[in-house]
Give the backbone structure.
Amino acid sequence: MRTIGLVALHVFRDSVRDKVLYSIVAFAVILMAVSYLIGQLTAGEDLKIIKDLGLAAMSLMGLFIAVFIGIGLIAREIDRRSIYAVLAKPVRRHELLLGKYIGLVGTLFVNLAVMALAYYLVLAYIGSTLSEAALKAASAPPTDPRLLLAVMMIGLELALVTALALFWSTFSSSALLSAGLTFGLYVAGQFGADLKNFEQVVKSPAAGLIGRALYYLLPNFAAFDIKTEVVHALPIQPGYLSLTAGYALIYIALLLTASVMIFARRDFK
Amino acid sequence: MHAIRTEGLTKHYSVGFWRSRPYVALDNLNLEVAAGEVFGFLGPNGAGKTTTLKLLMQLIFPTAGRAFILDRPVGDVAMRRHIGYLPENPTFYDNVSAEELLGYFAALFGYRGEERRRRVSTLLDEVGLGAERRLQLRKYSKGMIQRVGLAQALINDPDVVFLDEPMSGLDPIGRRDVRDIILRLRDRGATVFFSSHILGDAETLCNRVGIVAGGKLAASGSLAEMVPFRIRGWDLVLAGVTADAAAALAARGAAATAIGDSRYHVVLPSTASSEEAIALAKSVGAELVAINPVRDTLEDFFMAHVQQGPRRSFD
């Protein structure tokens, strides 16, 4: 456990200083600020639009961090051969892999927290500019604590994306291919509900079966999207959040187990 | 106890995308290195040196055969507490400093607190990076990264050190520093196994060498056994050589080549003694600038074995 902790701390230290990371976080904050201007263009709905755009910016920028830095963790390390010196130390391969995963998820969560803080500051500022009547008319207060639920779901989603990125990079020697596969699965995973109902819209039973198999196999990223519910103050089914969190944790555990098994026998040519 | 032992170590790779075919990177390597030896693992590029080192570090897994370090299988993680490894052309993490990197590696070996700080500081001074210890590694030159690589290989005060092309990317001062470090390791009883295609390094450092070519061990043994170092002739540099004197040298069977400013490079056969060589220079009225015996070198031996290739062992 100590070794995993040491690797995680090192990954956090290295990746938190990555210039790409600062650019992505800065871009997210700018997007949130710009959402204020967009909100000005729409009558009445400005607060909801700002909330929605802010969460979308966090999700998108988090995805960039998870994919680009996540892929870099193993694929680039193999590509640049920096992994050689580490594996010659008293470090088991699974300790290195798990340490790297924890370190990157830690970096992601810290960045998500920074973005969430910026998000709440923007919302608080906008709230202070709204009239009493506008505030009363809004379905939820500007700094609604329920927004944090959406941020937590984004965090879980990103932890799953990171596990996926790590999984691809354990056997692909190309960082670009790993990034492409992760992005591809992320996009496919957004259409989980459509895959489930695929058999109802196609005539071929085989195609319907493939659609259903893919629904169960692919990570269902759409399940993490509760932006609409929190922005529009709609109720969330009881137990939905814990069920989704459980789904994410099981999927992550499966991906990490597969990654560890593949990584244990991999040749670093 | 053997520091390193391999038994029939073999590695095949599949090459080609559509019609993959096996490529023999290493074929039936049997090697023994005793504790305390400085062993040079020599061969041209692509001979199998790095493959052997990667197999010993378990970065790749053998197709056949076994390998042991300090009489323990190479897969034994606890054994790695006693070894150090410098990969060929190493790279590390861009956003950390040399001090942080070595601190991280030292922690992996269980060093803590003040002991860890002292170890890191001493090593950085030893490899000549004391002043740049807090600089991020992306600002380092290739030679500085090589020095960081060397420092991390020694962070645990190892009993066996594996160095893959340790002189690569270093300037003459850096090469001398690495030689000094290897000699210090030898003096304190550590085993050093280093790969190189630069034979001069092996001649100045090694007790024994192994020559690998085409994935096979072409020869191994002590330098004295492999290369008799017998005198094969004399190299002279003469100054103030006139046209008549040059003709006189040629008449006496000496191969003379003009190197400018009435200077000549003269080669005499091994049948001549050093006194005869000096007397020859005097007899033609030339000034003797330099006289050197021409000996067998490891390079001659290497060229003969790498080109002809039959397996031969001097052990």
User: Anything to note?
Assistant: Chain B has two domains: 2-226, 231-295. Residues 231 and 295 of chain B are 5 Å apart (CA to CA). The domain at 2-226 of chain B is CATH 3.40.50.300 (Rossmann fold).
